[in-house]
Amino acid sequence: MASAPENEAFTPEDIFILSGQSNMSGRGGVDKHNHWDGIVPPECCSDPAKIFRLSAHLNWEMACEPLHHDIDTKKTCGIGPGMSFANAIKDKMGAIGLVPCAVGGTALKEWGKGTHLYENMINRARAAMHQGGKIKALLWYQGESDTLYKHRVETYKANMEKLIHNVRTDLYMPFLPIIQVAIASGEGKYTEKIRQAQKRIDLPNVVCIDAMGLQLKEDKLHLTSDAQVKLGQMFADAYLTHFAATKHSSVHSSVKRSFFCCCLN
User: Fold this and answer.
1) Known catalytic residue: 249?
2) CA end-to-end span of the chain, whole Å?
3) Domains of the chain
4) Which residues pair with 96 in a beta bridge?
5) Is 222 an annotated catalytic residue?
6) Count of CB atoms situated within 10 Å of the CB of 234
7) Which of 15, 79, 186, 190 could staple 28 via S-S, CB 3.0–4.6 A?
8) What is the pTM of this model?
9) CB contact set of 139 (below 8 Å; sequence gap of 6+)
10) Tell me: the pLDDT tens digits for 32-50?
11) What are the pLDDT digits (tens) for 67-109?
């Protein structure tokens, strides 16, 4: 069981789990030589009074890019959607706590209950709530690795629904809001089939936003920094539209799953 954050004098009121694979942990601004350019868009700037992150050592600290630098450690992290999301909602929330959990290159089966990735995510979420903060939503962006094999496509919807059930059960939050992304790219030829599986998930308090149309880097797999800013704002729009009026994540008047698509300008 995870220990509590060492900074026990402070816990953000409103906590968001960020999980999935590389487009959640962020590769914006990272070049082909795995060097991050260090450029932080204004929408992703830090706010030491409002936006915090849970470090790998379970300490609350001021959030800054790259959010996943000590979590997704095998590759270079850059700009992801987390900071633009937090900045877009901060005026309507209390102190925001971001809990980075995403790891690049991970297939959905690697997030099954009992795996290292799953247990680490649950333990970090529990630690984040130790001093009374409330988890408001899980933001999930994953699936590119599952486009490689047909059998992964065939089981994706059922496995994702099982993951959602497991997370809600283990956190004792049966109506925890989930905002997932319909992927914009893939490592294999089944990208569209994974997208369709993601859109067909039909559970209460599950909303899907569509990343298709957001700009990709030269690798045709990862979102650019500008695209990550837009994605974070799409997450924010979805959260504010569907869940912001909810005073507690475990509210029983849960919303019906819906597909939420932001227009890209």
Assistant:
1) no
2) 45
3) 14-240 (3.40.50.1110)
4) 14, 51
5) yes
6) 25
7) 79
8) 0.91
9) 16, 17, 18, 19, 24, 81, 82, 85, 179, 235
10) 999 999 999 999 999 999 9
11) 999 999 999 999 999 999 999 999 999 999 999 999 999 999 9
Among the listed residues 56, 102, 106, 110, the one whose alpha carbon sits nearest the alpha carbon of residue 78: 102
Two tokens, residue 123: 């333990």
Q: Per the structure block, which two tokens stand in for 244?
A: 């912001």
List 37, 70, 202, 219, catalytic entry: 219
Distance CA 107, CA 67 (A): 21
**129 vs 141: CA distance, rounded Å:** 22
The CA distance from 167 to 26, in Å, is 23
User: Which position among 19, 22, 84, 225 bears the catalytic label?
Assistant: 22
